[in-house]
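Lecture notes, unit on binding sites. The following record was shown on slide 14. It pairs a sequence with zinc ion.
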Amino acid sequence: MGIIASGKYPEEIRGQHVPMITESQFYRVQAILDGRNPNFVKVKRNYDKTKFKLRRIVKCARCGIGLTAAWSKGRHASYAYYRCSGKCSNASIKKRDIDDAVIAMLKQITPTPECLDLLSVLLKKRIIIV
Ligand SMILES: [Zn+2]
C-alpha cells in the first residue's frame, strides 16, 4: 500500500512510488491471512483527531491539499506524521516539525499589548453600540 518499512530504521514512511494496492485492499488481505471475514474489515484510520489538531488545516506546499495525519509504527515506537493526501508524492513530515513551525509562526503574529488594548476599546464600543 505504498509504505516503506526497513529493519535498519524504526520509522515507516510513505514511498514516492505508486502503491500496488489500496489501504483497504491491504487490510482485507490481512483479514484473510488472519482467518477473519474480509467483508467486515473496516479500513483502519491511523490517526487520532485529538492528537492531530492541524490535520487538513496545514496545506501541502506542492499541491495545496490539506495534510492528513497518521501514526507510523516503527520497531520500537510509533511516530506521528503529517502527509499529503494528494498525488503529488510530497514526503511525510514529522508532526513535531509541523507543530514547531506553526508555533513559531504564531509567535510572530502575536498581537502587541498596544494592539490588544485597541482591540479591547473597539470591542467595548461595539458592545455599547449594540
Ligand atoms: Zn501535495
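Take-home: Residues 1-45 form one domain.
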